[in-house]
Amino acid sequence: MGDFVISVRNTTKGNFGNEPGPTKFLVVPPNKKDTHPDQKIARTKWTDAVIAEAKTGESTLSGNPLGDILVYIHGFNNSPPDVLVRHRLLKKDLKAQGYKGAVVSFDWPSANIAINYLEDRSDAKKTAIRLVDDCIKLFSVVQAKGCEVNLHLLAHSTGAFIIREAFDDADDRIKIASSNWSVSQIAFIAADVSSKSMSTIDSKSDSIYRHCVRLTNYSNPYDSVLKLSNIKRIGVSPRAGRVGLPDNIPTKAVNVDCGSYFKTIIKSEAEYDGAFSHSWHIGDDLFAKDLYLTLQGDIDRNRIPTREADSRGRLALKE
After folding, report:
1. pTM for the whole thing?
2. For 4-62, how does the pLDDT look when each residue is reduced to its tens digit (9 = 90+)?
3. Which domains occur in the chain, in start order?
4. Three-state SS across the chain?
C-alpha cells in the first residue's frame, strides 16, 4: 500500500517544516521520495491499513489475529526525506530476515543541520507525548478489541530521549496512567540518553521499564557523535549509546555491545570518526538479524545466535 508515517511536524508553504505541528497520519506512495501533508488520510483508515499489514496469522488458542508493528523513532538532524530513506531501508532489512509485520515511522520535527541540536532536543520533549497519545494508545485500543498485535519501538539517538520522556509524561497523567497500556520490545541504537538514567534507582526510566516486556540497548564505544568532547555535548554525562547500560538495571533490560563488530565493518577513517559510527545499524545485515530475533522473542536473549559473551561475560554482537 505504501509507507506508514506519523508526522508531528508543522506545515509551512504547503510542506512539512521543522517545528511541532498537528499530528498527521500518512501513507507515502512507493514512488515518492518525500513525505507531504497531502499524503494524510483519516486516522481510523490509517490504523486499519497498518493492522492489516501487521497481521501474520491467527492464534491457535484464541483464534484472534496475530501480528507485529515496529515503530521507528529517528534522532536529531533528520529531514523528512532522510526519515523516509531510513524507514524504507529498515523495512527492507527486516523483511529480508523474515519479518512479516508492519513498520511505522514516527517523524518528529528535527532540522538537517547540526547547529540545531539543542533546538531539536527541545522539540523532541515537546512532541514526546504524541508518541503515546497518537501512536501507542492508538494500537492499545486495537489490542483491547482482541487483535493480538505486538507493538515494538526502535529508537535511534534522540529518539531514545523521546521514548523516555513520553513514557514518563504518560505516567504523570491520571487518565493514561490508570489505563492498561504497554509495548513489547523496545530497542535503542546510539541512544542519546545518559547511561545512569537507565538504572533502577533513577526515576526517569521507571515508566519505560514498567510499560515494556524487554528493553535492548545496542551500544558502540566508538560512537564519535556521542563522545563527551563533542562541542554540543559539553556538560552531559556518558551516553547509553556509547558506554552501555549501567550495572544496576532491571532483569528485563539487556545491553549488547557492538564495538568489536563495528571495527570489522568500517572501511575508512572518515566512517570511523564521522556519522557512520552513530548510524551504521540500519543497512547492516547482522544487526537486522539480531533485531528481528529480538522482536520475535522466541529465543532467550542470552542464546540469540548473533550474540556472544565477551571476555567479561557481557553480551556482544558477534564479529
Report:
1. 0.93
2. 999 999 999 899 998 899 999 999 999 999 999 999 999 999 999 999 999 887 767 66
3. 3-317 (3.40.50.1820)
4. CCEEEEEEEEEECCEEEEEEEEEEEEEECCCCCCCCHHHECCHHHHHHHHHHHHEEEECCCCCCEEEEEEEEECCCCCCHHHHHHHHHHHHHHHHHHCCCCEEEEEECCCCCCHHHHHHHHHHHHHHHHHHHHHHHHHHHHHHHCCCEEEEEEEEECHHHHHHHHHHHHHHCCHHHHCCCCCEEEEEEECCCCECHHHCCCCHHHHHHHHCEEEEEEEECCCCCCCCCCCHHHCCCCCEHHHHCCCCCCCCCEEEEECHHHHHHHCCCHHHHHCCHHHHCCCCCHHHHHHHHHHHHCCCCCCCCCCEEECCCCCEEECC
